[in-house]
Design brief:
31% helix; 4-stranded mixed beta sheet; 13 helices; alpha/beta
Length: 410
């Protein structure tokens, strides 16, 4: 499928089983592997690409591990392999080999890790010779991807002297760091903030436990978007918890400003369109960068001007998401402005839209999923290379069909 046409229903009434959280899956898989206990299972694992490559790598441990486009797996496995016996090369897609990893490699080398670049300095592929590491203290900038920080945190309990992580400057994506702390604790690890910018991880072995993975709040964001853009909606999403450690659970509160209410049940939520919305939206997405595409598209489609900041990490995601959003929204007739490499704003400026525009997805699952709901306002929309959703939500198009959308190949 190189291109699909997505056509919208009149209203949405649906019960959708979301994929489980890949953020939780990938952390739980690494921690379970570090506990060295095969007896306990992790239930409700995601079937997305990012989790599949992690499961395969940890199960088979081949000499060359190809994680394809899975950035989380690249970062988490780099740290994991550093403390695990054996020699491995870890590589990925061409785009993955262009994504920087020097900060994480330097941090691991500072505590004795044996890591070499096999091609370009500062980028994958990496050759890693695992060994026992002592630990102590690492200092790194707080504004780097939280996945670097989480990767280091998770190996902390198996280091001889534990680990102290001192984060300098502004700390971004703090909820993802807190998510890692909570999952580590559930597996018997001991990690805590011992200062405003200091995380202490104690040398204390993990214990394997039976574990159930919550559904993905990031995936839920697209259903909130559909509720906001529809005339009438009632959408039940089982598997989501009201008291969630996922940073993207903030989506429920944010969509209240766009006329979507959330009713919490026992391990489920129900979304309803209530029609009341803000005149202008301003938000700092530093802690929820993966929600940015959803809100840019939603606000434009609803005619709500916005100013979104804290988007600096979007430039090093699967694609430069800031540039991609500006380009693709222009196809639909919206002129979005960028400033400081970390802000996107729209004051209502329009241009002529393309006839029958097709949205490019840039090998980025979130571009496809954020733009598809625009069909509710445009009647239909075309998406190029729609298969990219397999990275985090393989059944996305199937679920849209269940909710009344029409998906046709072109």
């Amino acid at each position: 499928m190189n291109k699909i046409k997505v056509s919208s229903p009149e209203k949405i009434t649906a019960r959708i089983q979301l994929p489980s959280s890949k953020s939780i899956c990938n952390r739980a898989l690494v921690i379970k592997a570090l506990s060295k206990n095969e007896d306990k299972s992790i239930d409700n694992l995601s079937d997305c690409d990012d989790t599949s490559v992690m499961i395969k790598a940890l199960k088979n441990m081949p000499e060359t591990i190809d994680i394809m486009a899975a950035g989380t797996a690249m970062r988490f496995l780099t740290a994991y392999l550093s403390v695990t016996e054996g020699v491995h090369v870890i590589t990925g897609t061409e785009r993955m080999r262009q994504r920087p990893i020097k900060i994480l490699v330097d941090a691991l080398r500072s505590i004795g890790a044996d890591i070499e670049y096999t091609e370009n300095e500062g980028f994958p592929p990496l050759r890693i010779k695992g060994r026992e590491l002592e630990g102590e203290e690492i200092e790194l900038p707080g504004n780097v991807s939280s996945q670097y920080i989480s990767a280091l945190m998770m190996i902390g309990p198996v280091l001889k002297n534990g680990l102290r992580l001192r984060l300098t400057g502004d700390i971004i994506s703090r909820p993802y760091i807190n998510l890692t702390i909570e999952i580590m604790k559930e597996f018997g690890g001991k990690a805590e903030w011992t200062g405003d910018n200091l995380i202490t991880i104690y040398s204390q072995p993990y214990k394997a436990i039976p574990y159930y993975v919550e559904s993905d709040w990031s995936a839920a964001s697209y259903w909130y978007e559909m509720a906001a853009l529809s005339d009438e909606a009632c959408i039940e999403l089982p598997g989501l918890f009201e008291k969630s450690f996922q940073g993207d659970s903030k989506v429920a509160e944010l969509f209240e400003q766009l006329g979507v209410s959330t009713e919490y049940g026992d391990k489920s939520v129900t979304l309803r369109k209530d029609g009341k919305h803000t005149a202008i939206m301003e938000y700092d997405f530093v802690n929820q960068p993966d929600l940015a595409q959803t809100f840019v598209v939603t606000c434009c489609m609803m005619g709500i001007p916005f100013r979104f900041s804290g988007l600096q990490s979007l430039k090093i995601k699967e694609t430069d998401r800031i540039a991609a959003l500006i380009t693709e929204m222009r196809k639909l007739g919206y002129i979005i402005s960028e400033s400081n490499g970390s802000e996107l704003s729209w004051k209502g400026e329009r241009c002529e839209s393309e006839t029958n525009p097709a949205i490019d997805t840039y090998e980025d699952h979130r571009m496809a999923m954020a733009f598809a709901p625009a069909a509710l306002k445009l009647k239909n929309i075309r998406i190029n290379n729609p298969h990219v959703v397999s990275k985090s939500y393989p059944k996305y198009w199937e679920d849209l069909t269940k909710a009344g959308f029409s998906i046709t190949e072109e």
